[in-house]
Amino acid sequence: MTISNLQKARAAYQPKLPKALQGPVKAVEGAATQSVGNQAEIKELFPNTYGMPVITFEPGDPIELPPFNVGIILSGGQAPGGHNVISGLFDGVKSLNPANKLYGFILGPGGLVDHNYMEITPELMDQYRNTGGFDIIGSGRTKLEEEDQFEKGIQILRELGIKALVIIGGDDSNTNACVLAEYYAAKKYGVQVIGCPKTIDGDLKNEQIETSFGFDTACKTYSEMIGNIQRDCNSSRKYWHFIKLMGRSASHIALECALQCQPNVCLISEEVEAKAMSLDDVVTYIAQAVATRAAEGNNFGTVLIPEGIIEFIPAIKKLIAELNDVLAMPEAQSITSANEQIEFVKGHLSYENLAVFKSLPSDVAAQLALDRDPHGNVQVSLIETEKLLSRMVADKLAVWKRSGKYVGKFGSQHHFFGYEGRCAAPSNYDADYCYSLGYNASRLIANGKTGYMSVIKNTTAPAAEWVAGGVPITMMMNLEKRNGKMKPVIRKALVELDGAPFKFFAAHREQWAKETAYVYPGPIQYWGPSEVCDQTTKTLQLEQVK
Ligand code: FBP
Hints:
Layout: H1 5-11, E1 25-29, H2 39-45, E2 55-59, E3 69-74, H3 82-96, E4 101-105, H4 109-113, E5 117-119, H5 122-128, H6 147-159, E6 162-169, H7 171-186, E7 192-197, H8 215-236, E8 240-245, H9 252-261, E9 265-266, H10 269-274, H11 279-295, E10 301-306, H12 314-327, H13 338-348, H14 351-359, H15 362-369, H16 385-402, E11 412-417, H17 419-422, H18 428-446, E12 452-457, E13 467-472, E14 477-482, E15 485-490, H19 500-514, H20 530-533, H21 538-544
Parallel strand pairs: 3-4, 3-6, 6-7, 7-12, 8-10, 8-11, 9-10
Antiparallel strand pairs: 1-2, 2-13, 4-5, 12-13, 14-15
1,6-di-O-phosphono-beta-D-fructofuranose (FBP) binds near residues 76, 199, 201, 307 and 381.
């Protein structure tokens, strides 16, 4: 394999670990925990893994353990740092006993069910240290939720002598990790299951999880590109750039990029919902910013659009909720053509939702009515909101021009930044954070834990001061409707409108809208002054101010 010079140099980087993980550990247990909602129901569903304490690791005495093997699965969308979770786990497991082996299940949870695996050898591991991507074993979105999948899984786990399985994933995948942990505990199969918080979307966070890995690098990568566009835009002064940013549901990525780049407009889906804005309100808001700048002779600007915005416009949200129920109907399962599916949907929607459905541009309506991902989510990355909004803004400006409300020229360019950032080489923060998460998982395994998520806290401090431990996954759960049924799920963290990151943005956005206050963050740096190379996201910095 030919590798780049950067990759060669990065291979030599030794990620930092919290002090507590630099030697033998002891697990300090906190008080019993409760789920964030629906306590009685979650307790009943998870009798073996509910109520366990939060764990913190502190320096302790060495423990002797017989050799054991561990399995690892990468689940869902790629996020920078995944390979470092694996290298941290690999090094952690080997440090406990060099005879221990790590097996990777190939292409996501499906690899466990289909018995598709490979051993992660030291030679293989060394090729992937500090690199982006999930390609060492691949990832997939197979949903692990059926008993027969769990039973097929245990066959291969037993065959390979695997004592613990680590599942690296977002909220849905960690929910499934917890269901699997509970199942294996109830059956007394003797296999532990540990989760790891991954997703560029940044929406797997709570009081115990400061951030999901990959968010830092992905946002820095998108911010570099937005900064470049802003500089281009400020050089030619003739385009409005409509930039859609990944983040299937929450707007954390858009907000972080706005904090880094100071664009003219950034929509925040959670605010659109809270203010009960219609699609027309959103368009008017952008058009107003365009008109205000045009009045000063500035016929250029940048608009950041969170990928999931369409789902947060209240009328469309109601429509999607009903569409989900309609698509879950038994009769819908045998439909094979897109047209038939759209007609079926139209025939089953309520009067009010049908009117909203018909009012949408046909490409958007079709996408909402078509297939969901395996977790039942609308595939928002396929909806071209950036084009839809700029088209509607152009129409509105044309009307305003006729009445003299707008004088200016409106030219637009469109971008979607998503896949460009998900496999970027991890920033120093993600390289260290991910390595620590993986290493920490090996300590949770050594301490016999199951149904826990690996957590590293205090990450705005230098890595040596980071706090390592584990949080019971049931603690983050509540019941929500999925595929037409109430299911236990980890509560997704949306942008909080009374949180420090949004408040900072809201306090500055009027100025950023009018003036050309762009910031050009430039590319991620790995070597150089710490304030350039080791800064966390602005979101985390603002959230962690005590
Ligand atoms: P995860 O939550 O699985 O990490 O994935 C997030 C994400 O990158 C979203 O931002 C995006 O909407 C989605 O994955 C795209 O999915 P796919 O990779 O299947 O196209």
